[in-house]
């Protein structure tokens, strides 16, 4: 006697394996574009292989970083403008790696959603591949998780993991001292931190994502979804040129919290806020929320996405090199004796 079968499939439970396979095929060309020396296998295996010797390293130290995009994803989901959040994801990892003195080598992503929509997922992962390409970093693997019941319709989450390398003894920060010049590299917007506050301020303003942006052409949603700037190749060029003692990626906590992370015990910084102008997006956020300067500085990047602490006699040469690399560069202050951040001038 045979037992009857109800014929229920995995797809009936909300998971479409065929859609997942279709996505892998769709993104293979984007991942292939990121291939670099050291990559030993493409997408589709149970793991990804990377040859450090082929990448040119003799005595390497590995450096790893992981991050997400945060509630900026809410704007991307609500507007359907998902093409840039993959770049954000890469930037949040590789910009951290380079602060350790490491060259990003490869990247893996984790994309989770309630129901896999191949077109949306492909646009997101193609953005990840673009971020990797711009950073000289190979997209060698990832995971797409379809989890019905865990996410509302249309919702998704992203996480990323990157590994970099440097030769032994080349790690940063190293040699930071009083008198070092602080060089700031311009951001191109809010990047990927502080978006819970951004969303609250937009709510207070009464504007919708589709409304005209108050400070530039285009919609408010598009303006706030500008991808995080990638500083990898520029920063590595400066490090290799000599004279860079530290790099600080200005993320959550703003200038107030992130620059002190690379300063040795007993040292602080004098920062002249008059050396750059607060970008219009932050002016609007501050005005909308009635925020004071201290709150802006400890919440947002305030127009400076990366800070380099450099040997004083190398500051001019490194400034020129970074400008040649396409950066907008500001000489914003110096490292000083005595711990703490001391500000002169004003942004607001």
Q: Topology, pairings included?
A:
Layout: H1 17-32, E1 60-68, H2 72-79, H3 85-99, E2 103-113, H4 118-135, E3 138-146, E4 156-167, E5 181-186, H5 195-205, H6 220-224, H7 232-241, E6 244-249, H8 254-258, E7 267-272, H9 280-289, H10 293-299, E8 304-310, H11 315-324, E9 329-337, E10 340-344
Parallel strand pairs: 2-3, 7-10
Antiparallel strand pairs: 1-4, 2-4, 5-8, 5-9, 6-8, 7-9
Please provide a brief summary of the model.
It contains 11 helices and 10 strands. By secondary structure, it is of the alpha+beta class.
Explain what the structure shows.
This protein is of the alpha+beta class and 348 residues long. It has helices spanning 17-32, 72-79, 85-99, 118-135, 195-205, 220-224, 232-241, 254-258, 280-289, 293-299, 315-324, and strands spanning 60-68, 103-113, 138-146, 156-167, 181-186, 244-249, 267-272, 304-310, 329-337, 340-344. Helix 1 (17-32) packs parallel to helix 4 (118-135) and helix 3 (85-99) packs parallel to helix 4 (118-135). It is globular and about 75 Å long. The chain starts with 16 loop residues before the first helix and ends with a strand.
